[in-house]
Amino acid sequence: MDLPTFLVQCLNAIQYGLLLFLVASGLTLIFGIMGVINLAHGSFYMIGAYMAFALAPLFGGQFILQLLAGVALAAILGFVLEWVFFSYLYQRDHLQQVLMTYALILVFEEVRSILFGNDVHGVTAPPWLSGGFSLGGLMTYPVYNLFASFACILVAIGLYFVVNRTRLGMMIRAGASNRDMVRGLGINIRLLYRVVFAAGVALAALAGMIAAPAASVYPGMGGQILIICFVVVVIGGIGSISGALIASLLVGFVDTFGKVFFAQYSGISVYVLMALILIWRPEGLKSKGY
Amino acid sequence: MTTTPISLSVAQSPRRGLQTSLPPLAAALLLAALPAFMSSYGADLALRIMVYAIFALSLELLVGATGLVSLGHAGFFGIAAYVTVLASGDNAAPVLWLLPASMLAAGLYALAVGALSLRTRGVYFIMVTLAFAQMAYFVFHDTPVGGGSDGIFLTSRPVLAIGGATLLDLEKSGHMYYMALACLAATYALLAMVLRSRFGHALAGIRANEQRMRAAGYQTYYYKLAAFVLAAMLAGVAGFLMAAKNGAVNPELLSWHESGGVLMMIILGGLGSLRGAVLGAAAFVLLKEFYASAAIFGAFAERWQLTLGLTMILFVALMPQGLIGLARRFRRSPEAHHAH
Amino acid sequence: MRTDARHGQPLLQAGALTRRFGGLTAVRDVSIDLHVGELHAVIGTNGAGKSTLINMLSGEIAASGGVLKLDGIDATAWPQPKRSRAGIGRSYQRTTIFPQFSVLENCRLAAQAALQRPWRLWQPARDCAHSVATAREVLEVAGLAGFAERPAGSMSHGQKRQLEIAMCLATRPRVLLLDEPLAGMGAEESERMLSLLERLKRDHAILLVEHDMDAVFRVADRITVMVNGEVIASDTPGNIRANPDVLVAYLGDAHEP
């Protein structure tokens, strides 16, 4: 493998890893704080992608505005969903949560089918982000993909800032270690949960919106990314955002280079990685002990 | 609120034992007589229900009896189905070694997967089992082992032959039906026996309080692994039957939709009860038929996933004890606690 | 019996047991010996490390340092199930019976651990002569024989605590680690439990963690006092009562020597 190809694959790996991180961080936050396993989390990613498809004609070329609008819509959706559905899941056991969120996936899939049909759609990148970036030789790398990675890094930094440097973040971290204590301290736990859930949905949807121009928009995308996110969370440890970041990048590299070296068997490379981690450290790389 | 099992082990008198065996026996007889007065569509539906009932029973051992929530059970179902087709070749293969072979394949994968998955608990376990099933899915979907996303066809269906005489030819729908019925009866009887045994009681204890069992001296990891492998092998029986019935296999048999579906079946019927598993499988298949029926719902029948999903949400929310739980509430017998 | 007489080699010997949780040292350098025929009580304020100590002795958590010997054999690395089968039994402070099962089944299941034979799938568990006989025996000892078929969850708190002890006995342990067996019990029930303990003392080595001082001074042959994870005194009850460090650190001046 020559250097430009290697670089391209590295960039692909990082991009995929960062996108995964966005989705996985939402998943791990929601489970870490509220103790809810949400199978429908992948559906939010899909919703984001389809939103990009639906909003594109409305916003013309105003890409950044479109992203912000999408995030806002997703956050509102998350807020409402938590209120009418997910808040009832907190007291239930894992099995019930699995079943109800699985049933929710079926509902989402069908609604999407009604609104957008079952075809594969494409979303074009805005003009100022299209085109390629020369990497020496004949290799070019899409500008949009670089933008995607850049956007994810910005979000990751923002996430780090909020979680570690704000009062909200402090409440989140406290809630992750000791739910009852936070309640006992008189913090409006209902509102906190609603905000965290909305943030999780927004993160996943944002990832979907960013991914849409680079990948395609298709029916099974929610399920696919969910399972990979589960692998990320198992490797990184539940409740740990830094663990999710490390694990996401690890998965990104294993998957990307797996495709390069193992072609047909690449689909299983991520799971082999998971199996190895299970042999070595079953509780995850940086678990908070769930 | 929790999905606590409604059946638990309490000593039974032999007379009571006969009493509780009656309904399953009656159901078996009814199923045996069904083809005589039902259309071929009805018999085919009953056949599908029986295969899924075996699948549901196998998961009941894992989730209901041992408390291990697996979201990857379809992996074993699908592996057995694929092995059935792959090992069949061009001529009709004998059931006598094909069925055990597919069960063994499922069991071996379960041994490997279980050994690793059982190093985790709770929500991790759910995610890991899902991931390993997905891994098997990709093996059959992407690699040359399977036939890609279209799957593979069974050239000729298995036969049960002793000496030169062909006793059972699964090509014939009648034989297929009774083969499935026999397997269902055998699986049910086996599980009833297992749940009554020392092993079964130990599993019930592990489900109730694993730490306490360890404190008493049980090496719970091995018990759980044994249950995991046994459940996988029984799912393999269902997989074999599915392959023989359809004459084809495709990767979707290992999908997480299949895993989610079978999980729904045992909740629908009522967790912690073998009858519940069978009932739930029947209810789920019938519900799906109902919602997908264009005759009743017209164009909206296409959207059966939506109606099914909403139904399940309401069901889990309002009736977590399942159909059996509903029946128990009507009978209201205080000592009717058994895993039958 | 409150003599100083020791019956030969200790059955359970714990030497310099230490347990750290991150930066916190919950138990530091605790050594304790348990002899058959002797009831050794461990007392201390909340947070003194008593529960952590019992958890380390039973094998529920691993020790960060120190040695554990059972009958002279190094059992430090043994996981809990192995220690249990070797004869170390424990009861829990928070009742951990199986409320859904019958009282008899609770004990039978515990007794089954000694002779598991899980491969005998054709035989119903209730026909297991060994475990049923053991269960009936311990129920008799614990005074619960009349409740055998009742669902364990339907009993009173005191009866559940008795069942807790019965389950512990069902594994036929030689060492009993009892974590506050009298917790939440009334006077009559406590009396029954104490006479049971006095009977059990004869053939077992007992470690008793308790807060009820009257009970402790009545049945204990030896008392170890823990404060902040360390042992500050270990002696006969009479000497402990007179020990000035103990009085200051734990008993307070309300208790007269």
What does this molecule look like?
Chain A is an all-alpha fold and 290 residues long. Chain A has helices at 3-34, 41-59, 63-84, 94-116, 143-165, 167-177, 179-184, 189-211, 221-236, 241-262, 266-280; strands spanning 132-134, 140-142. Chain A has a domain at 21-219. Chain A has 11 helices and 2 strands, in the order H-H-H-H-E-E-H-H-H-H-H-H-H. In chain A, helix 1 runs parallel beside helix 5 (143-165), helix 3 (63-84) packs antiparallel against helix 8 (189-211) and helix 9 crosses helix 10. The radius of gyration of chain A is 19 Å and the shape is globular. Chain B has one domain (14-331): ABC transporter involved in vitamin B12 uptake, BtuC (Orthogonal Bundle), CATH 1.10.3470. Chain B has helices spanning 14-37, 40-65, 74-86, 95-117, 122-142, 173-196, 198-216, 220-246, 256-269, 274-291, 294-297, 304-318, 322-331; strands at residues 152-153, 159-162, 165-169, 248-249. In chain B, the strands form 2 sheets. A two-stranded antiparallel ribbon of chain B has the order 1-4. In chain B, strand 2 and strand 3 (165-169) form a beta hairpin. In chain B, helix 2 packs antiparallel against helix 8 (220-246). The radius of gyration of chain B is 20 Å and the shape is globular. The two termini of chain B are 24 Å apart. Chain C is of the alpha/beta class. Chain C is globular. The two termini of chain C are 19 Å apart. In chain C, 46% of the residues are buried. Chain A binds chain B through residues 31, 37, 39, 88, 91-96, 98-100, 102-107, 109-111, 113-114, 223, 227, 230-231, 233-234, 238, 264-268, 271-272, 274-275, 278-279, 282-284, 290, and chain B through 1-3, 63, 69, 71, 116-117, 119-120, 122-124, 126-128, 130-132, 134-135, 138-139, 141-144, 256, 260, 263-264, 267, 271, 303, 305-306, 308-310, 312-313, 316-317, 320.
